[in-house]
Amino acid sequence: MDGVTESQVGPPSPFERRREKLFAQLGGGVMVLPAAPTRFRSRDTEYRYRPDSELFYLTGVTEPEAVAVLVGGEEPRFTLFVRPRDPDAEFWAGPRMGVDRALSAFSPDDCHSVKELAQRLASLLDGGDRIFYRTRHGDGVGTFVSAALERARARGPRTGGGPRALVDPGEVLDDMRLIKDEQEIEALRKAVAISIAGQRAGARSLGGGVPERTVEAAVEGAFRREGAAAPGFATIVGSGTNACVLHYVDNEDTVQEGALVLLDAGAEVGLYNGDITRTYPASGHFSEEQRAVYDVVDGARTAAISVAQPGATIADVHAAATVVIVDGLVTLGVLSGDRDDLIEQGVHKAFFPHQTSHWLGLDLHDPGDYTRGGASRVLEPGMVFTVEPGLYFRPELSKGGAARYSGIGVRIEDDVLITADGNEVLTAGLPTAAEDMEAMLAGEE
Ligand code: GLY
Ligand code: MN
Ligand code: MN
Fold this sequence. Notes:
Layout: H1 14-26, E1 30-34, E2 40-42, E3 45-46, H2 53-59, E4 67-71, E5 77-82, H3 87-93, H4 98-106, E6 110-113, H5 117-126, E7 131-132, H6 142-159, E8 166-167, H7 170-178, H8 182-204, H9 212-226, E9 230-231, E10 236-239, E11 260-265, E12 267-269, E13 272-273, E14 276-281, H10 288-307, H11 314-331, H12 339-345, E15 371-372, E16 375-376, E17 384-387, E18 390-392, E19 409-411, E20 414-419, E21 422-425, H13 434-441
Parallel strand pairs: 1-7, 5-6, 7-8
Antiparallel strand pairs: 1-4, 2-3, 4-5, 9-12, 10-11, 11-14, 12-13, 15-16, 17-20, 18-19, 20-21
Helix pairs in contact: 1-2, 5-6, 8-9, 10-11
């Protein structure tokens, strides 16, 4: 079914605006974005469906099996293929949008049943000079893309037409997605608000003798109650030395009296992700050693955020955190020597092995190059990223001056938006300073 609907009258949706920007860069290319596959947890039992970030970004489509075809050129066209209505299938898995409703909901120029993909895709692809498509096994599209490229290679020299190159959609989309628009920032604010609610629920559940999974349940229960689709990633509740395992997700230990608990959790809301880490003293108060390490990490967080502004680079943010971490390791008596020499030798990496930041958005680790032309990415208004320094004293490495801190792991993670004149800490509603954390755990905040 083709045609113009009433929904196309009025201000363009954010999806239409993004498509306009895409078409301005697509030239004569054709972009094909299939929906994310349904993933199986075991045998025929499915995970809850998680739509494809790129397809959603450009169209708002969240249904499985959909395919968007965006043909660039002087008269760009957005063709959408969706599952047809099917009462039997809908009895099992719920309502499908179908072609008619998809036409008014997503405003494509043309909308067809995905059953017509085989018959229609070849001619859409043949009209482009390049195909923007990410090869993925079994999405029903790849064979048409290969065939179109082969046809053009065979016939192109005579007809001068057809697609001659396959390009990753990220070549255009990653840079677009790096600068968040108003609707995306709004969505991120919601994800962050619910992530904060989860952190607060997790903090309230803490105490000596509490199973880590009870904390996980408190966090994720709050996420769902507040309207999140799911945690954006497996919640990390690392108590004691488990905090020193960077991707600890078992959450099967029991929080010991006096231990620190590293809680790294984020809610996915409207497909956008919050990502927050706080490290709490389970008993409500930091020990002297815990507090000393904690203050270094929070100082690194503050220093990193203070340099995050337009014109600085993402490497500057990491460098600012690293300086405070290295100075802190010297003050703690763990390292000795000249700061610059220590940084150059990378000795601190035994205790702070990861980067300070990653881009944040529709994907937890959102796409976008961290370098460009060999230099670190310059920050621009609309970029959103985490600032998450940490210090981890793995017991096996805690020798010499580090022995005093053995088993202590601290990470503090905020989500930061670059604004026209600096930055906004989206997660500022959740404290980080040690005294504030203690007050929060005492129910005074
Ligand atoms: N929780 C994953 C991350 O912070 O990147
Ligand atoms: Mn993160
Ligand atoms: Mn995180």
